[in-house]
Protein backbone atom coordinates (compact mmCIF):
# COMPACT_ATOMS: atom_id res chain seq x y z
CA UNK A 1 0.00 0.00 0.00
CA UNK A 2 1.25 3.45 -0.93
CA UNK A 3 0.89 5.28 2.36
CA UNK A 4 0.09 8.97 2.20
CA UNK A 5 -0.63 9.57 5.88
CA UNK A 6 1.12 7.56 8.57
CA UNK A 7 0.66 7.90 12.28
CA UNK A 8 2.96 6.02 14.60
CA UNK A 9 2.28 5.37 18.26
CA UNK A 10 0.20 8.52 18.76
CA UNK A 11 -0.65 9.16 22.39
CA UNK A 12 -2.69 12.23 23.27
CA UNK A 13 -3.60 13.54 26.70
CA UNK A 14 -6.16 16.10 27.79
CA UNK A 15 -4.42 17.13 30.98
CA UNK A 16 -3.85 13.73 32.62
CA UNK A 17 -6.56 11.86 30.77
CA UNK A 18 -5.24 9.71 27.98
CA UNK A 19 -7.55 10.12 25.00
CA UNK A 20 -5.50 8.28 22.39
CA UNK A 21 -3.54 5.27 23.52
CA UNK A 22 -0.93 4.65 20.88
CA UNK A 23 -2.57 4.78 17.48
CA UNK A 24 -0.74 3.19 14.53
CA UNK A 25 -2.76 3.88 11.43
CA UNK A 26 -2.08 4.86 7.87
CA UNK A 27 -4.09 5.93 4.89
CA UNK A 28 -3.34 5.60 1.18
CA UNK A 29 -3.49 8.58 -1.16
CA UNK A 30 -7.00 9.27 -2.53
CA UNK A 31 -10.17 7.52 -1.51
CA UNK A 32 -12.56 7.65 1.41
CA UNK A 33 -11.57 6.40 4.85
CA UNK A 34 -14.15 6.11 7.62
CA UNK A 35 -13.39 6.29 11.33
CA UNK A 36 -16.11 4.63 13.38
CA UNK A 37 -16.65 3.92 17.04
CA UNK A 38 -18.87 4.90 19.97
CA UNK A 39 -18.91 8.45 21.38
CA UNK A 40 -15.82 9.41 23.30
CA UNK A 41 -13.65 6.72 21.68
CA UNK A 42 -11.15 9.27 20.37
CA UNK A 43 -11.96 9.26 16.68
CA UNK A 44 -12.65 13.00 16.49
CA UNK A 45 -9.58 13.68 18.58
CA UNK A 46 -7.55 11.55 16.20
CA UNK A 47 -8.96 13.47 13.24
CA UNK A 48 -7.90 16.75 14.82
CA UNK A 49 -4.39 15.36 15.27
CA UNK A 50 -4.05 15.32 11.49
CA UNK A 51 -4.45 19.09 11.02
CA UNK A 52 -3.15 20.03 14.47
CA UNK A 53 -6.44 21.56 15.58
CA UNK A 54 -5.77 20.10 19.00
CA UNK A 55 -3.03 22.72 19.32
CA UNK A 56 -5.81 25.24 20.01
CA UNK A 57 -6.93 23.40 23.14
CA UNK A 58 -4.89 24.26 26.20
CA UNK A 59 -3.30 21.41 28.18
CA UNK A 60 -3.18 18.96 25.32
CA UNK A 61 0.03 16.99 25.02
CA UNK A 62 0.88 14.55 22.29
CA UNK A 63 3.61 12.05 21.56
CA UNK A 64 4.28 9.90 18.52
CA UNK A 65 4.81 10.81 14.91
CA UNK A 66 2.42 11.90 12.19
CA UNK A 67 3.67 12.04 8.62
CA UNK A 68 1.73 13.37 5.68
CA UNK A 69 3.34 12.77 2.30
CA UNK A 70 6.56 11.91 4.10
CA UNK A 71 6.70 15.15 6.11
CA UNK A 72 6.56 15.09 9.89
CA UNK A 73 3.78 17.57 10.68
CA UNK A 74 4.73 17.80 14.35
CA UNK A 75 8.33 18.80 13.75
CA UNK A 76 9.18 22.24 15.15
CA UNK A 77 9.70 23.49 11.60
CA UNK A 78 6.14 22.76 10.54
CA UNK A 79 4.06 25.81 9.75
CA UNK A 80 0.52 25.01 10.91
CA UNK A 81 -0.84 27.64 8.55
CA UNK A 82 0.63 25.81 5.54
CA UNK A 83 -0.38 22.45 6.96
CA UNK A 84 -4.01 23.48 7.30
CA UNK A 85 -4.06 24.73 3.72
CA UNK A 86 -3.09 21.20 2.68
CA UNK A 87 -5.34 19.45 5.18
CA UNK A 88 -8.82 20.96 5.13
CA UNK A 89 -11.51 20.29 7.69
CA UNK A 90 -15.31 20.19 7.72
CA UNK A 91 -16.98 20.35 11.12
CA UNK A 92 -19.99 18.64 12.63
CA UNK A 93 -22.08 21.80 12.85
CA UNK A 94 -22.26 23.75 9.58
CA UNK A 95 -20.15 26.82 10.41
CA UNK A 96 -20.24 29.28 7.52
CA UNK A 97 -19.00 32.77 8.33
CA UNK A 98 -21.75 35.38 8.61
CA UNK A 99 -20.73 36.69 5.18
CA UNK A 100 -22.05 36.11 1.69
CA UNK A 101 -21.77 32.70 0.05
CA UNK A 102 -19.19 34.10 -2.36
CA UNK A 103 -17.06 35.50 0.45
CA UNK A 104 -17.28 32.25 2.35
CA UNK A 105 -15.99 30.20 -0.55
CA UNK A 106 -13.24 32.68 -1.44
CA UNK A 107 -12.11 33.14 2.16
CA UNK A 108 -9.29 30.61 2.00
CA UNK A 109 -8.10 31.99 -1.32
CA UNK A 110 -8.14 35.59 -0.18
CA UNK A 111 -6.12 34.86 2.93
CA UNK A 112 -3.64 33.09 0.67
CA UNK A 113 -3.35 36.37 -1.24
CA UNK A 114 -5.30 35.57 -4.38
CA UNK A 115 -7.06 38.74 -5.52
CA UNK A 116 -7.68 38.13 -9.24
CA UNK A 117 -11.45 38.37 -9.64
CA UNK A 118 -11.49 35.94 -12.55
CA UNK A 119 -9.58 33.26 -10.64
CA UNK A 120 -11.84 33.73 -7.64
CA UNK A 121 -15.01 33.51 -9.73
CA UNK A 122 -13.79 30.33 -11.43
CA UNK A 123 -12.85 28.68 -8.16
CA UNK A 124 -16.18 29.61 -6.58
CA UNK A 125 -18.10 28.05 -9.43
CA UNK A 126 -15.96 24.93 -9.57
CA UNK A 127 -15.97 24.38 -5.79
CA UNK A 128 -19.70 24.93 -5.44
CA UNK A 129 -20.29 22.55 -8.33
CA UNK A 130 -18.05 19.91 -6.76
CA UNK A 131 -19.89 20.37 -3.49
CA UNK A 132 -23.20 19.84 -5.34
CA UNK A 133 -24.71 23.10 -4.20
CA UNK A 134 -24.06 25.32 -7.25
CA UNK A 135 -27.50 24.95 -8.79
CA UNK A 136 -29.20 25.96 -5.57
CA UNK A 137 -27.15 29.07 -4.86
CA UNK A 138 -25.78 30.29 -8.20
CA UNK A 139 -28.36 33.10 -8.45
CA UNK A 140 -27.71 34.53 -5.03
CA UNK A 141 -24.02 34.14 -4.38
CA UNK A 142 -24.03 37.46 -2.59
CA UNK A 143 -26.73 36.48 -0.14
CA UNK A 144 -25.64 35.74 3.42
CA UNK A 145 -24.60 32.12 3.84
CA UNK A 146 -26.58 32.09 7.08
CA UNK A 147 -29.82 32.39 5.12
CA UNK A 148 -29.29 28.90 3.63
CA UNK A 149 -30.67 25.68 5.07
CA UNK A 150 -28.42 23.55 7.27
CA UNK A 151 -27.67 21.10 4.47
CA UNK A 152 -26.85 23.87 2.03
CA UNK A 153 -24.66 25.57 4.63
CA UNK A 154 -22.71 22.36 5.15
CA UNK A 155 -22.15 21.96 1.40
CA UNK A 156 -21.00 25.59 1.20
CA UNK A 157 -18.57 24.79 4.01
CA UNK A 158 -17.30 21.83 1.99
CA UNK A 159 -16.97 24.09 -1.07
CA UNK A 160 -15.02 26.50 1.10
CA UNK A 161 -12.54 23.73 1.86
CA UNK A 162 -12.42 22.47 -1.74
CA UNK A 163 -11.67 25.98 -3.02
CA UNK A 164 -8.28 25.90 -1.29
CA UNK A 165 -7.51 22.64 -3.16
CA UNK A 166 -6.17 20.67 -0.20
CA UNK A 167 -4.66 17.19 -0.49
CA UNK A 168 -6.58 15.84 2.46
CA UNK A 169 -10.12 16.58 3.60
CA UNK A 170 -11.09 15.74 7.17
CA UNK A 171 -14.80 15.55 7.91
CA UNK A 172 -15.93 15.38 11.52
CA UNK A 173 -19.43 13.84 11.48
CA UNK A 174 -20.43 16.18 8.66
CA UNK A 175 -23.97 14.86 8.29
CA UNK A 176 -24.97 14.17 11.87
CA UNK A 177 -26.76 17.52 12.18
CA UNK A 178 -28.51 17.18 8.82
CA UNK A 179 -31.67 15.60 7.45
CA UNK A 180 -31.41 12.33 5.45
CA UNK A 181 -31.83 14.04 2.07
CA UNK A 182 -29.01 16.51 2.71
CA UNK A 183 -26.88 13.68 4.10
CA UNK A 184 -27.49 11.70 0.94
CA UNK A 185 -26.43 14.65 -1.22
CA UNK A 186 -23.21 15.00 0.73
CA UNK A 187 -22.49 11.27 0.50
CA UNK A 188 -23.02 11.31 -3.28
CA UNK A 189 -20.81 14.35 -3.53
CA UNK A 190 -18.03 12.68 -1.55
CA UNK A 191 -18.17 9.72 -3.91
CA UNK A 192 -17.65 12.01 -6.90
CA UNK A 193 -14.52 13.60 -5.44
CA UNK A 194 -12.96 10.46 -3.93
CA UNK A 195 -10.54 10.09 -6.84
CA UNK A 196 -9.02 13.52 -6.27
CA UNK A 197 -8.70 13.81 -2.51
CA UNK A 198 -7.68 11.76 0.48
CA UNK A 199 -10.87 11.91 2.51
CA UNK A 200 -11.11 10.90 6.15
CA UNK A 201 -14.59 10.97 7.63
CA UNK A 202 -15.62 10.42 11.22
CA UNK A 203 -19.13 9.05 11.38
CA UNK A 204 -21.58 7.61 13.86
CA UNK A 205 -23.61 6.28 11.02
CA UNK A 206 -22.43 2.75 10.22
CA UNK A 207 -24.54 2.54 7.08
CA UNK A 208 -22.88 5.69 5.88
CA UNK A 209 -19.44 4.24 6.51
CA UNK A 210 -20.31 1.04 4.68
CA UNK A 211 -21.96 2.90 1.76
CA UNK A 212 -19.20 5.33 0.90
CA UNK A 213 -15.87 4.36 2.42
CA UNK A 214 -13.08 2.31 0.86
CA UNK A 215 -11.40 1.66 4.17
CA UNK A 216 -12.68 1.69 7.75
CA UNK A 217 -10.97 2.01 11.11
CA UNK A 218 -12.74 1.09 14.33
CA UNK A 219 -11.82 2.99 17.52
CA UNK A 220 -12.77 2.00 21.04
CA UNK A 221 -11.77 3.76 24.27
CA UNK A 222 -8.86 5.58 22.70
CA UNK A 223 -7.47 2.48 20.99
CA UNK A 224 -7.53 1.41 17.40
CA UNK A 225 -9.17 -2.00 17.37
CA UNK A 226 -9.24 -2.80 13.73
CA UNK A 227 -8.60 -1.19 10.36
CA UNK A 228 -8.82 -2.41 6.83
CA UNK A 229 -10.92 -2.52 3.68
CA UNK A 230 -14.47 -1.54 4.55
CA UNK A 231 -15.86 -4.74 3.09
CA UNK A 232 -13.68 -6.98 5.22
CA UNK A 233 -14.18 -4.94 8.40
CA UNK A 234 -17.94 -5.10 8.03
CA UNK A 235 -18.34 -8.62 6.66
CA UNK A 236 -15.48 -10.36 8.31
CA UNK A 237 -14.34 -8.51 11.43
CA UNK A 238 -11.26 -9.92 13.11
CA UNK A 239 -12.15 -8.78 16.61
CA UNK A 240 -15.12 -9.56 18.78
CA UNK A 241 -15.50 -5.87 19.75
CA UNK A 242 -15.73 -4.81 16.12
CA UNK A 243 -18.31 -7.46 15.44
CA UNK A 244 -20.35 -6.39 18.47
CA UNK A 245 -20.23 -2.74 17.47
CA UNK A 246 -21.16 -3.11 13.83
CA UNK A 247 -23.92 -5.55 14.62
CA UNK A 248 -25.35 -3.02 17.09
CA UNK A 249 -24.75 -4.89 20.33
CA UNK A 250 -23.37 -1.71 21.93
CA UNK A 251 -22.50 1.91 21.09
CA UNK B 1 -69.49 24.26 52.01
CA UNK B 2 -67.93 21.01 51.00
CA UNK B 3 -64.21 21.29 51.96
CA UNK B 4 -62.95 19.85 48.64
CA UNK B 5 -65.00 22.32 46.65
CA UNK B 6 -63.76 25.12 48.83
CA UNK B 7 -60.16 24.06 48.33
CA UNK B 8 -60.45 23.90 44.57
CA UNK B 9 -62.29 27.17 44.20
CA UNK B 10 -60.06 29.29 46.42
CA UNK B 11 -56.57 30.40 45.37
CA UNK B 12 -53.72 28.22 46.57
CA UNK B 13 -50.84 29.68 48.53
CA UNK B 14 -48.59 29.46 45.45
CA UNK B 15 -51.06 31.38 43.32
CA UNK B 16 -51.32 34.08 45.93
CA UNK B 17 -47.52 34.32 46.07
CA UNK B 18 -47.46 34.59 42.32
CA UNK B 19 -49.98 37.40 42.40
CA UNK B 20 -48.05 39.18 45.15
CA UNK B 21 -44.84 38.96 43.13
CA UNK B 22 -46.58 40.35 40.09
CA UNK B 23 -47.98 43.26 42.03
CA UNK B 24 -44.56 44.11 43.48
CA UNK B 25 -42.79 44.07 40.11
CA UNK B 26 -45.51 46.00 38.30
CA UNK B 27 -45.53 48.63 41.03
CA UNK B 28 -41.76 49.06 40.75
CA UNK B 29 -41.94 49.35 37.00
CA UNK B 30 -44.80 51.84 37.16
CA UNK B 31 -42.88 53.98 39.66
CA UNK B 32 -39.72 54.00 37.54
CA UNK B 33 -41.65 54.87 34.40
CA UNK B 34 -43.35 57.65 36.30
CA UNK B 35 -40.03 59.05 37.52
CA UNK B 36 -38.47 58.94 34.06
CA UNK B 37 -41.51 60.54 32.48
CA UNK B 38 -41.68 63.31 35.05
CA UNK B 39 -37.98 64.08 34.62
CA UNK B 40 -38.54 64.31 30.91
CA UNK B 41 -41.64 66.48 31.22
CA UNK B 42 -39.99 68.73 33.81
CA UNK B 43 -36.81 69.30 31.80
CA UNK B 44 -38.78 69.75 28.61
CA UNK B 45 -41.23 72.28 30.07
CA UNK B 46 -38.42 74.24 31.71
CA UNK B 47 -36.28 74.07 28.62
CA UNK B 48 -39.11 75.11 26.32
CA UNK B 49 -39.98 78.06 28.55
CA UNK B 50 -36.92 79.84 27.19
CA UNK B 51 -38.55 79.94 23.80
CA UNK B 52 -42.20 80.37 24.75
CA UNK B 53 -41.98 82.57 27.85
CA UNK B 54 -38.74 84.46 27.27
CA UNK B 55 -39.27 84.65 23.51
CA UNK B 56 -35.81 83.46 22.52
CA UNK B 57 -35.51 82.30 18.95
CA UNK B 58 -34.88 78.54 18.73
CA UNK B 59 -32.73 78.84 15.66
CA UNK B 60 -30.63 81.58 17.26
CA UNK B 61 -30.25 79.31 20.27
CA UNK B 62 -28.76 76.53 18.17
CA UNK B 63 -26.66 78.68 15.88
CA UNK B 64 -25.88 81.81 17.88
CA UNK B 65 -22.35 82.32 19.14
CA UNK B 66 -23.00 84.74 22.02
CA UNK B 67 -23.97 83.30 25.36
CA UNK B 68 -24.98 86.00 27.76
CA UNK B 69 -28.42 85.22 29.18
CA UNK B 70 -28.74 88.39 31.21
CA UNK B 71 -28.25 90.72 28.24
CA UNK B 72 -30.68 91.48 25.45
CA UNK B 73 -29.64 91.63 21.81
CA UNK B 74 -30.68 94.24 19.25
CA UNK B 75 -34.01 92.50 18.66
CA UNK B 76 -34.80 92.58 22.34
CA UNK B 77 -34.52 88.85 22.96
CA UNK B 78 -31.92 87.42 25.36
CA UNK B 79 -28.51 86.49 23.95
CA UNK B 80 -28.68 82.75 24.08
CA UNK B 81 -26.31 81.35 21.50
CA UNK B 82 -25.47 77.82 22.55
CA UNK B 83 -23.32 76.96 19.56
CA UNK B 84 -20.01 77.37 21.49
CA UNK B 85 -21.12 74.81 24.08
CA UNK B 86 -22.58 72.47 21.51
CA UNK B 87 -19.30 72.65 19.57
CA UNK B 88 -17.33 72.08 22.78
CA UNK B 89 -19.42 69.07 23.76
CA UNK B 90 -19.16 67.44 20.35
CA UNK B 91 -15.48 68.37 20.10
CA UNK B 92 -14.40 66.67 23.31
CA UNK B 93 -16.72 63.71 22.70
CA UNK B 94 -15.57 62.94 19.19
CA UNK B 95 -11.88 63.47 19.96
CA UNK B 96 -12.05 61.38 23.13
CA UNK B 97 -13.70 58.51 21.30
CA UNK B 98 -11.26 58.79 18.38
CA UNK B 99 -8.37 58.47 20.82
CA UNK B 100 -10.00 55.73 22.87
CA UNK B 101 -11.32 53.40 20.17
CA UNK B 102 -8.00 52.02 18.85
CA UNK B 103 -6.72 51.48 22.38
CA UNK B 104 -9.98 49.88 23.45
CA UNK B 105 -10.05 47.48 20.49
CA UNK B 106 -6.39 46.63 20.98
CA UNK B 107 -6.85 45.93 24.67
CA UNK B 108 -10.02 43.95 24.07
CA UNK B 109 -8.34 41.81 21.41
CA UNK B 110 -5.40 41.21 23.70
CA UNK B 111 -7.75 40.14 26.48
CA UNK B 112 -9.88 37.83 24.36
CA UNK B 113 -7.46 36.41 21.81
CA UNK B 114 -3.90 36.68 23.05
CA UNK B 115 -3.53 36.93 26.81
CA UNK B 116 -3.34 33.87 28.98
CA UNK B 117 -5.82 33.52 31.83
CA UNK B 118 -3.60 35.48 34.18
CA UNK B 119 -3.00 38.47 31.91
CA UNK B 120 -6.68 38.62 31.16
CA UNK B 121 -7.62 38.68 34.84
CA UNK B 122 -5.12 41.45 35.59
CA UNK B 123 -6.37 43.62 32.73
CA UNK B 124 -9.95 42.93 33.72
CA UNK B 125 -9.35 44.28 37.21
CA UNK B 126 -7.41 47.28 35.87
CA UNK B 127 -10.40 48.17 33.72
CA UNK B 128 -12.85 47.69 36.56
CA UNK B 129 -10.65 49.93 38.67
CA UNK B 130 -10.71 52.64 35.97
CA UNK B 131 -14.51 52.53 35.98
CA UNK B 132 -14.64 52.96 39.73
CA UNK B 133 -12.45 56.07 40.01
CA UNK B 134 -14.69 59.09 40.71
CA UNK B 135 -14.71 61.73 37.98
CA UNK B 136 -13.46 64.43 40.31
CA UNK B 137 -10.25 62.44 40.66
CA UNK B 138 -9.86 62.27 36.89
CA UNK B 139 -10.49 66.00 36.75
CA UNK B 140 -7.94 66.66 39.43
CA UNK B 141 -5.30 64.58 37.66
CA UNK B 142 -6.20 66.35 34.44
CA UNK B 143 -5.82 69.71 36.12
CA UNK B 144 -2.47 68.94 37.69
CA UNK B 145 -0.89 66.76 34.97
CA UNK B 146 -2.55 67.15 31.60
CA UNK B 147 -3.14 70.91 31.65
CA UNK B 148 0.54 71.74 32.43
CA UNK B 149 1.66 69.10 29.93
CA UNK B 150 -0.44 70.60 27.13
CA UNK B 151 0.66 74.11 28.10
CA UNK B 152 4.35 73.23 28.10
CA UNK B 153 4.59 70.86 25.14
CA UNK B 154 1.72 71.72 22.81
CA UNK B 155 0.81 75.31 23.49
CA UNK B 156 -1.90 77.63 24.69
CA UNK B 157 -2.96 78.01 28.28
CA UNK B 158 -3.39 74.29 28.69
CA UNK B 159 -7.13 74.62 29.19
CA UNK B 160 -9.26 73.65 26.23
CA UNK B 161 -10.90 70.96 24.18
CA UNK B 162 -7.67 68.99 23.78
CA UNK B 163 -7.11 68.66 27.52
CA UNK B 164 -10.78 67.83 27.97
CA UNK B 165 -10.62 65.08 25.42
CA UNK B 166 -7.45 63.63 26.99
CA UNK B 167 -9.22 63.35 30.33
CA UNK B 168 -12.33 61.90 28.71
CA UNK B 169 -10.18 59.46 26.74
CA UNK B 170 -9.15 57.78 29.98
CA UNK B 171 -12.69 57.92 31.30
CA UNK B 172 -14.40 56.33 28.29
CA UNK B 173 -11.63 53.79 27.68
CA UNK B 174 -12.93 51.24 30.22
CA UNK B 175 -16.52 51.57 28.96
CA UNK B 176 -15.56 51.03 25.35
CA UNK B 177 -13.05 48.30 26.22
CA UNK B 178 -15.31 46.18 28.37
CA UNK B 179 -18.19 46.41 25.91
CA UNK B 180 -15.85 45.51 23.05
CA UNK B 181 -14.60 42.55 25.06
CA UNK B 182 -18.20 41.39 25.48
CA UNK B 183 -18.89 41.64 21.77
CA UNK B 184 -15.66 39.80 20.88
CA UNK B 185 -16.49 37.05 23.34
CA UNK B 186 -19.88 36.71 21.70
CA UNK B 187 -18.26 35.68 18.40
CA UNK B 188 -18.88 31.93 18.17
CA UNK B 189 -15.75 29.84 18.67
CA UNK B 190 -16.50 27.87 15.53
CA UNK B 191 -15.95 30.91 13.30
CA UNK B 192 -12.44 31.06 14.64
CA UNK B 193 -11.93 27.31 14.22
CA UNK B 194 -13.25 27.41 10.67
CA UNK B 195 -10.90 30.23 9.77
CA UNK B 196 -7.84 28.60 11.31
CA UNK B 197 -8.71 25.26 9.72
CA UNK B 198 -8.64 26.98 6.33
CA UNK B 199 -5.04 28.00 6.90
CA UNK B 200 -5.59 31.53 8.18
CA UNK B 201 -3.09 33.02 10.57
CA UNK B 202 -4.19 34.34 13.93
CA UNK B 203 -4.16 37.94 12.69
CA UNK B 204 -6.07 37.10 9.52
CA UNK B 205 -8.64 35.37 11.68
CA UNK B 206 -8.86 38.34 14.00
CA UNK B 207 -9.38 41.05 11.43
CA UNK B 208 -11.19 39.14 8.73
CA UNK B 209 -13.55 37.12 10.87
CA UNK B 210 -13.63 38.13 14.52
CA UNK B 211 -13.60 41.91 14.14
CA UNK B 212 -15.89 41.72 11.15
CA UNK B 213 -18.53 39.66 12.84
CA UNK B 214 -18.47 41.83 15.94
CA UNK B 215 -18.63 45.18 14.12
CA UNK B 216 -22.10 46.05 15.36
CA UNK B 217 -21.10 45.27 18.94
CA UNK B 218 -18.00 47.42 18.66
CA UNK B 219 -20.03 50.30 17.18
CA UNK B 220 -22.43 50.00 20.10
CA UNK B 221 -19.47 50.18 22.48
CA UNK B 222 -18.25 53.35 20.75
CA UNK B 223 -21.67 54.97 20.95
CA UNK B 224 -21.90 54.16 24.64
CA UNK B 225 -18.47 55.73 25.07
CA UNK B 226 -19.75 58.84 23.26
CA UNK B 227 -22.80 59.00 25.49
CA UNK B 228 -20.58 58.79 28.54
CA UNK B 229 -18.22 61.47 27.22
CA UNK B 230 -21.06 63.74 26.19
CA UNK B 231 -22.65 63.59 29.61
CA UNK B 232 -19.51 63.91 31.74
CA UNK B 233 -19.51 67.24 33.58
CA UNK B 234 -17.13 67.61 36.47
CA UNK B 235 -13.86 66.31 35.07
CA UNK B 236 -14.29 68.23 31.83
CA UNK B 237 -15.24 71.41 33.62
CA UNK B 238 -11.98 71.27 35.58
CA UNK B 239 -9.76 71.27 32.49
CA UNK B 240 -11.63 72.93 29.65
CA UNK B 241 -11.31 76.56 30.75
CA UNK B 242 -15.03 77.34 30.87
CA UNK B 243 -15.15 80.26 28.48
CA UNK B 244 -18.55 80.34 26.86
CA UNK B 245 -17.10 81.56 23.60
CA UNK B 246 -16.66 79.92 20.25
CA UNK B 247 -13.44 77.86 20.46
CA UNK B 248 -10.91 78.99 17.88
CA UNK B 249 -8.65 75.98 18.28
CA UNK B 250 -8.31 72.82 20.34
CA UNK B 251 -6.04 74.76 22.67
CA UNK B 252 -8.26 77.75 23.40
CA UNK B 253 -10.50 77.89 26.44
CA UNK B 254 -13.92 76.49 25.70
CA UNK B 255 -16.95 75.05 27.45
CA UNK B 256 -19.39 72.20 27.09
CA UNK B 257 -23.11 71.97 27.69
CA UNK B 258 -22.43 70.15 30.94
CA UNK B 259 -19.71 72.47 32.18
CA UNK B 260 -21.88 75.56 31.65
CA UNK B 261 -24.68 73.80 33.51
CA UNK B 262 -22.61 72.87 36.54
CA UNK B 263 -21.00 76.31 36.65
CA UNK B 264 -24.23 78.22 36.26
CA UNK B 265 -26.94 76.28 38.03
CA UNK B 266 -26.04 77.57 41.48
CA UNK B 267 -25.78 81.18 40.36
CA UNK B 268 -29.17 81.69 38.79
CA UNK B 269 -32.60 82.18 40.25
CA UNK B 270 -35.42 79.80 39.34
CA UNK B 271 -37.74 81.26 36.73
CA UNK B 272 -35.32 83.82 35.32
CA UNK B 273 -34.15 83.80 31.72
CA UNK B 274 -30.67 82.73 32.80
CA UNK B 275 -32.09 79.77 34.67
CA UNK B 276 -34.43 78.75 31.88
CA UNK B 277 -31.56 78.96 29.41
CA UNK B 278 -29.68 76.37 31.46
CA UNK B 279 -32.72 74.13 31.32
CA UNK B 280 -32.64 74.44 27.56
CA UNK B 281 -29.07 73.17 27.61
CA UNK B 282 -30.19 70.30 29.84
CA UNK B 283 -32.92 69.52 27.34
CA UNK B 284 -30.32 69.25 24.58
CA UNK B 285 -28.31 66.85 26.75
CA UNK B 286 -31.39 64.76 27.39
CA UNK B 287 -32.29 64.66 23.70
CA UNK B 288 -28.72 63.68 22.81
CA UNK B 289 -28.70 60.78 25.23
CA UNK B 290 -32.04 59.71 23.78
CA UNK B 291 -30.46 59.96 20.35
CA UNK B 292 -27.47 57.81 21.42
CA UNK B 293 -29.89 55.23 22.80
CA UNK B 294 -31.85 55.09 19.58
CA UNK B 295 -28.66 54.70 17.55
CA UNK B 296 -27.60 51.80 19.76
CA UNK B 297 -31.01 50.19 19.23
CA UNK B 298 -30.77 50.61 15.47
CA UNK B 299 -27.27 49.12 15.35
CA UNK B 300 -28.42 46.22 17.51
CA UNK B 301 -31.34 45.54 15.19
CA UNK B 302 -29.14 45.69 12.10
CA UNK B 303 -26.52 43.46 13.75
CA UNK B 304 -29.06 40.73 14.39
CA UNK B 305 -30.07 40.44 10.75
Automatic annotation (TrEMBL), chain A:
InterPro entries: AAA+_ATPase, ABC_transporter-like_ATP-bd, ABC_transporter-like_CS, P-loop_NTPase, PstB-like. One of its GO terms (biological process) is phosphate ion transmembrane transport. Residues 5-246 form the ABC transporter domain. Signal peptide: none annotated. Keywords: ATP-binding, Nucleotide-binding, Phosphate transport, Transport. One of its GO terms (cellular component) is membrane. GO terms for molecular function: ATP binding; ATP hydrolysis activity; phosphate transmembrane transporter activity. The keyword ATP-binding applies. This is Phosphate ABC transporter ATP-binding protein. It comes from Liquorilactobacillus uvarum DSM 19971.
From TrEMBL, chain B:
GO terms for biological process: phosphate ion transport. Pfam families: BPD_transp_1 (PF00528). It comes from the Bacteria. Keywords: Cell membrane, Membrane, Phosphate transport, Transmembrane, Transmembrane helix, Transport. SUPFAM superfamilies: MetI-like (SSF161098). It is found in: Cell membrane. Residues 86-296 form the ABC transmembrane type-1 domain. NCBIfam families: phosphate_pstC (TIGR02138). This is Phosphate transport system permease protein. Part of the binding-protein-dependent transport system for phosphate; probably responsible for the translocation of the substrate across the membrane. The chain crosses the membrane at residues 20-44, 82-105, 126-147, 159-181, 218-240, 277-299.
Amino acid sequence: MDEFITTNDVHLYYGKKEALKGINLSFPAKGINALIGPSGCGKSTYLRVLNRMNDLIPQVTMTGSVKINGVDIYSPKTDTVDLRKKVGMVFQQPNPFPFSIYENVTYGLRIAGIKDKQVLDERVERSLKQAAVWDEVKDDLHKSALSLSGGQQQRVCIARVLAVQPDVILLDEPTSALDPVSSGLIEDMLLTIRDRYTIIIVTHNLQQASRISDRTAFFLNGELIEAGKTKSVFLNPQHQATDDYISGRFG
Amino acid sequence: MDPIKKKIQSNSRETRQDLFGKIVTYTCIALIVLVVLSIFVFVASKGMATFFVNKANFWDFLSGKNWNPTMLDSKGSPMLGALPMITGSFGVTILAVLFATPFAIGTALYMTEIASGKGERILQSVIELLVGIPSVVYGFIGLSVIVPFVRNYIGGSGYGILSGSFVLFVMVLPTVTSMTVDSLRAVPRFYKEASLALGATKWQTIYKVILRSSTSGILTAIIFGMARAFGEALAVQMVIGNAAIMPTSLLSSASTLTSVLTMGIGNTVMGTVANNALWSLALILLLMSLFFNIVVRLIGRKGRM
